[in-house]
Write a structure and sequence with these properties.
heterodimer; A: about 400 residues; alpha/beta; 12 helices; 19 strands; about 25% strand; B: about 50 residues; mainly beta; three-stranded antiparallel beta sheet; 3 strands; binds fe (ii) ion; binds zinc ion
């Protein structure tokens, strides 16, 4: 692996994990990178590290620039192990004079690596640190996406080292936004937002307002995963602004239908509901949970106005695939969307009620209730499913008309 | 009554107060100063909801 020279005295150390496919339950079908940054000069400063197990690559890249033990300071922007996993090894090899981090991050690092006597230097939000060749403004960005998350802003360069924010899981040889396929870049960034940052959307709105108020000049955004936004950093800022909208009217005219099925009865309902949305000129996507990963479903939900979930009743409850998806969605809280529930049943029919409870906890209102069909849906049942889609669509259309 | 942070899940328990912000045990949520913030994630009182 090769370090990338961003500009004079500033490097990206991109540890590239080409073959990872499961990132704590998020499907990363194109791998990822763990990016650290190195500023050189009379003080050599490392920003973050990478995941444990990649030490050879990580220190190998640094060694192509300077001897690792010549590093004076380390900034820790985030305690999660994909960025701090090599910190114990780094401290051991580098023996830094100072480790800069927030108070919260210091506690989190101590809770991860237990009882190490490391030279922490606690920084406050907004504090400036002079590292001789450049000035760093340290910004606390709590809950984006952990309480310890922070940014390091290189003031004179107008470069924002943004930790997980503005990142994406995508292993590429291109290291800049202008060196990779632009649509795919947005797709991966959208997936990252939907699966990691969505619960904190309101804080992202606040952060974007804050950085605008501070009039931060941003020439480049350097995230800890994926490529550097150098050609058009405003593009990802504007997308974050859009994705963090809380209101239904900011969603696209789009419905996402996810479900599982035992004997294709719930699937027949899913097809009919899909048709119903198409007849209302909605974009619609139908996703069987046996074929679609939960993190792909969330990506589709991000810009959708309507989410309909289906499960047959299995042993007085729902299918495990559907509860997996609903449990995941509940935590990501995609509120400001309309929910729908459907499912077939044989005798008791509890599934739609259980789906509805999950949806309510996820912040999705269900103004049209739920729809059920006994054993195998009749043509009449399927007509009701198409109508159900039309009713859900109408809720959205009335809402955007302001009724 | 206890109040829960809707962002990070921290629970404000009036019986415990908030030591780090010099809030004495026995302080009701309603009586916390307006500039009090969640000790975990830093959001304000508006982002708290009564615990069910
Ligand atoms: Fe993280
Ligand atoms: Fe990360
Ligand atoms: Zn909180």
């Amino acid at each position: 692996m090769e370090p990338i020279k961003i500009k004079e005295n500033l490097w990206q150390i991109p540890v590239t994990d080409w073959n990872i496919r499961d990132f704590h339950g998020y499907s990363v079908y194109s791998g990822t990178t763990y990016n650290a940054y190195l500023s050189t000069g009379s003080k050599n400063v490392l920003f973050d590290t990478a995941k444990k197990g990649f030490g050879e690559h990580f220190f190998g890249m640094i060694s192509k620039i300077i001897e690792p033990n010549k590093i004076d300071y380390i900034f820790v922007n985030h305690a999660e192990p994909d960025h701090s996993g090599l910190l114990p090894e780094a401290v051991e090899r580098i023996r830094p004079d100072k480790i800069f981090l927030s108070e919260t991050c210091g506690k989190a690092i101590t809770d991860h690596y237990h009882g190490k006597d490391w030279p922490f230097e606690i920084l406050k939000d907004g504090q400036e640190v002079d590292i001789s060749s450049r000035k760093v403004v340290f910004l606390e960005t709590k809950m984006l996406h952990w309480p310890d998350s922070c940014f390091s802003y290189l003031k004179d360069d107008g470069i924002l080292i943004s930790s997980d924010a503005f990142g994406h899981h995508w292993a590429t040889s291109g290291r800049y936004d202008d060196e990779v396929n632009s649509e795919e870049l947005v797709r991966h960034s959208k997936k990252y937002f939907a699966n990691i940052l969505l619960p904190f959307a309101s804080l992202i709105k606040k952060l974007l307002r804050r950085t605008a108020d501070m009039k931060l000049k941003i020439n480049m955004i350097c995230p800890d995963h994926g490529v550097i936004w150098r050609n058009n950093p405003d593009r990802i800022i504007n997308l974050y602004d859009k994705w963090s909208e809380s209101k239904l009217e900011s969603r696209e005219k789009k419905a996402v239908i996810f479900y599982d099925t035992m004997w294709q009865s719930t699937e027949k309902m899913a097809y009919a509901i899909t048709d119903g949305f198409k007849l209302q000129n909605f974009e619609v996507i139908m996703m069987n949970l046996r074929a679609n990963h939960r993190s792909e479903v969330m990506t589709e939900i991000l810009d959708g106005a309507i989410v309909a979930a289906g499960s047959p009743t299995l042993n007085n409850g729902i299918m495990p695939t559907v509860s997996d998806m609903l449990c995941y969605m509940r935590g990501l809280k995609p509120s400001g969307r309309i929910g729908g529930c459907f499912g077939s049943y044989g005798w008791s029919g509890e599934s739609v009620k259980e789906i509805g409870e999950y949806m309510a906890k996820a912040g999705l209102e269900q103004p049209c209730g739920a729809i059920k069909a006994k054993y195998v849906p009749t043509e009449e049942d399927l007509q009701k499913c198409r109508q159900y889609a039309a009713d859900l669509a109408e809720q959205y259309l009335n809402h955007i008309k302001g009724e | 009554m206890k109040f829960v942070c809707s962002v990070c899940g921290y629970v404000y328990d009036p019986q415990l107060g908030d030591d780090a912000a010099d809030i004495a045990p026995g302080t009701r949520f309603e009586d916390l100063p307006d500039d009090w913030v969640c000790p975990v994630c830093g959001v304000g009182k508006d982002d708290f909801e009564p615990e069910e």
